[in-house]
Amino acid sequence: MDTLSTEEKEIILGSIRDIPDFPKPGIVFKDITTLLNNPKALSTLMDHLTERYLGYELDYIAGIDARGFIFGAILADRLGVGFVPVRKQGKLPYTTVAEKYSLEYGFDEVEIHIDAFGENGCNCDGERSKVLLIDDLMATGGTAKAAASLIDKVGAHCVEACFIMELSFLNGKKHFPAPIYSVLEID
Ligand code: AMP
């Protein structure tokens, strides 16, 4: 099931809960905890992503803090590749590379370990490691762009970014440096 049927999309979409006005008025928060505790929806999603990425010959999956860790780690295990956490500033214990990005008010920062994708970002054949970036949702795209830039900074190659949901009306895709695959596009 490289392509999801309408019914499968509905199983996944129907398992995600909308929470209006969280964390602040005007935001509709897409709650994926109800996807995670729904075995049919979770396996439909993970079977689809496994099928899609089997042929990509990935070296690593990088998941964005924190919900990207869940989908990324399951997918990495299914594909037999390494998992790398892209963390919020100050959480990683070894030498890190950091990237700042702007929020509606102020800045945030993400980090990865300098050697997360192998020495100089290269795999055991001495080629740039092929990395899939994953998160639950793309809104403005700022977090994902910062994460993609970190992958590039340490010498690896972001082959695609994958989101369970994309708020397409925010046009976060614009100027993103790699192809994007969104399981569900929300208008
Ligand atoms: P952005 O950098 O604007 O693309 O925001 C993406 C990050 O914020 C992701 O890690 C999402 O988990 C989180 N996020 C942004 N908007 C929402 C939303 N409406 N519902 C759930 N998570 C969101």
Structural class, from helix and strand content?
alpha/beta
Percentage of β-strand residues: 25-35%
Q: How many domains comprise the coordinates?
A: 1
The CATH architecture = 3-Layer(aba) Sandwich
Q: Which strand order spans the largest sheet, edge to edge or round the barrel?
A: 5-6-4-3-7-8-9
Work out the helicity level.
Answer: 25-40%
Number of strands: 9
Q: What radius of gyration results from the CA coordinates? A: 16 Å
Helices and strands, in order, run as: HEEHHEHEEEEHEE
CATH class: Alpha Beta
Identify every distinct bound molecule in the structure, by name, code or SMILES: adenosine monophosphate
Biggest β-sheet strands, sense, barrel: 7 strands, mixed
What spatial form do the alpha-carbon principal axes imply? globular
Provide the residue-averaged pLDDT. 96
- Tally the helices: 5
Q: What is the CA–CA distance across the termini?
A: 24 Å
In the predicted model, the low-confidence regions spanning at least 5 consecutive residues are none
Quick summary of this structure?
The chain is α/β, with parallel strands linked by helices and 187 residues long.
Description:
It is a single chain. Helix content is 28%, strand content 33%. The chain is α/β, with parallel strands linked by helices and 187 residues long. It has one domain: Rossmann fold (3-Layer(aba) Sandwich). Strands 5-6-4-3-7-8-9 form a seven-stranded mixed beta sheet, with helices on both faces. A two-stranded antiparallel ribbon has the order 1-2. α4 (67-79) links the parallel β3 and β4. The longest helix is centred in the N-terminal third of the chain and has 15 residues, at 39-53. The mean pLDDT is 96. Adenosine monophosphate binds next to β2, β7 and α5.
